[in-house]
Amino acid sequence: MTVQLAHSPDADDIFMYYAIRFGWVDTLDYRFENVGLDIETLNEEALKGTYDVSAISFGLYPLIRADYALLRTAVSFGEGYGPKLIKLKGKRLRRNFKVALSGRYTTNAMLVRIFYPEARPVYMNFLEIEEAVLEGKVDAGVLIHESILDFDPRLEVAKEVWDIWQELAGEELPLPLGGMALRRSLPLNRAIEIEKILTEGVLVANRRKEELCRLLEEKNLVRISDELLERYLNMYASEESAELSPLQLRALDRLFEIGHEHGLYDCPIKAEEYLIPREYTEDRNL
Predict the structure, then answer these.
(1) Which of 15, 141, 185, 233 has the most CB atoms lying inside 10 A of its own CB?
(2) CA 86 to chain CA mean position, Å
(3) How far is CA 65 from CA 58, 171, 189, 193, in A?
(4) What is the domain extent for residue 97?
(5) Which of 143, 169, 195 is the last residue of a domain?
(6) How many CB atoms lie within 10 A of CB 205?
(7) Where is the active site (predicted)?
(8) Per-residue pLDDT at 23
(9) What span, in angstroms and rounded, lies between the C-alpha atoms of 220 and 93?
(10) What does the alpha-carbon distance between residue 117 and residue 111 come to, in Å, rounded to a whole number?
């Protein structure tokens, strides 16, 4: 069975999926076709139901819950860090400042729009945001992915999205950023098997991190290398990315509550109710 697996080209997504691509995981009778696209394109394609399995921004999920189940694995959360709202050093931001965001459906964009309701968003590819701020096309921009680790010295952080999240959440919870969704039209037994394979891929990647990183660098599959790559992966692609924890589920619930409170979703949802039901396999084994 061929499964379309869509993910972003940033280092943590590549890292979590390429143990499968390199044949280090038993994929049973599945053949995974990798598709690499920027996160907002993935979000837009998920709204159309394009791919069998896709990386998404968590902020999008309530809008696709009828068509996609939420996977437990390949998740990215911030723990005291996350995307950064940057501006030119010394620049004062007005209440209606123009801000470059990486896409309408990204989690960071959702939080920034809520926190700065008078800001004027401009959506663009995340790779163009830093330059847009430097050239004065926008007053500020939110850096995501690897760009948070190494940006132009003429820029400074105006606000950490982590801090925005803590203020909106009202409690100390990990910052939900992105995860995976699987199309509900797939048979349940297939969905369970695919989730297990993807989970094993993340676990194997972490067990063989040094070897995998070397291969990714040699094949020019990542945009950063050496110490920056190791630092970035420790942030967003650790063993904690393998399976949603109770605390991470609580953070997702709070994110969805906040979105509903601000009119972005039709109702609040509980993340656990939209996961693939493992009890199906347990019942079959009785």
Answers:
(1) 141
(2) 20
(3) 11, 26, 19, 20
(4) 84-169
(5) 169
(6) 30
(7) 145
(8) 93
(9) 38
(10) 10
Residues 225, 153 share a domain: no
Q: Which amino acid is at 237?
A: A
**What is the spatial distance between Cα 197 and Cα 204, in angstroms, rounded to a whole number?**
10
CATH code of the domain covering residue 154: 3.40.190.10
Q: Looking at the structure, do residues 116 and 145 belong to the same domain, yes or no?
A: yes
Q: Count structural domains, the chain.
A: 2
Q: Quick one: 147 and 212 in the same domain?
A: no
Neighbouring residues of 275: CB distance < 8 A, sequence distance ≥ 6: 69, 70, 71, 72, 244
> For 191-233, what is each residue's pLDDT tens digit?
999 999 999 999 999 999 889 889 888 989 888 777 888 888 8
Q: Contact, 65 vs 269, CB < 8 A?
A: yes
Catalytic residue ranges = 145
Q: Are residues 67 and 111 in the same domain?
A: no
Q: What is the DSSP letter of 242?
A: S
Within this chain, do residues 253 and 116 fall inside the same structural domain, yes or no? no
DSSP, collapsed to helix, strand or coil, labels residue 47 as helix
- Residue 265 is given by DSSP the state S
* Cβ–Cβ < 8 Å for 147, 235: no
How long a stretch of residues is the chain? 286
- Please state, in angstroms and rounded to a whole number, the distance separating the CA atoms of residues 155 and 128: 14
